[in-house]
Specification:
Layout lengths: L1 H28 L2 H15 L5 H25 L5 H16 L3 H11 L1 H9 L2 H19 L3 H11 L1 H16 L20 H28 L7 H25 L15
Helix pairs in contact: 1-11, 3-10, 4-5, 5-6, 7-8, 7-9, 8-9
Length: 268
Amino acid sequence: MRRFLQNTAVMSWVVVVIVGLFVAVLVPSLHLPSRLSGGQSVLDKGAPAFDDTRVAGDRAGITMVSAIVDLADPIATAKGGGADEVPKLVAFVSEQTGLSRPAVLAALQKNFPHTTSLLQAVPLEAVSAELPRLVTFLADNLHLTKDQVVAALNKNFPHLAQSIDVLPTVTGGWNHVAGTDQLTRFDGSRVRTVPQVRDYFAKDVVPVLEREQSNFHRLDTTPPPVDVFAPLLILVGVLVIAYGGAMIALAHYREPAVAFRPVAVSSG
């Protein structure tokens, strides 16, 4: 009977030790320390991006960018279609008024000079193509090098120079934004043009921030930090192993409790 009780106690504590060993081994096997540490880093570094005012600002910003894209897309390149419609507009006014097309352009130039200049500049990639010739023309007539002309423009007409410098980049990359060769929408569709980049941020990135904002805040503000769970589980496993091992040792040497001990009865 004593041996049976000892074996039962030992086996019970062996099971406890196995459970503790399982926990202690499982945690690093699943890479929980590095994964939870990485998760905590995401929470720490990502908190500014999920700030309420910033998420609202992201939406307002991308809405403004979207309006700019809608403005520029038809006129930035010939592919936008705006350039094809300018002659049609002049022809339409000519037909309705009975004026010749040159007369229509002259009337537009007189009454709406800025609008007319914009119409005549469409597509803007045509302006970009003229800019190198403009610099050459200025250099020849001012008897300066091209670098000196550019420097003079930057010094004396900084805002115009900024537009002149940036416009070729905008028109040249409008339909193929540099660095987007591998970029795709969340649904896998390609992102190459400026309008597609706009859609990527407006319809994929910003909505994720808006949708997951409350979940992020709940995870970030609920104690304790997520990176404490892995070492805590390992510690619990080690303590269970140690306690179970100690109880196994005690079960080997401890006298088992006896529920009933017979008593000798005197016959005299």
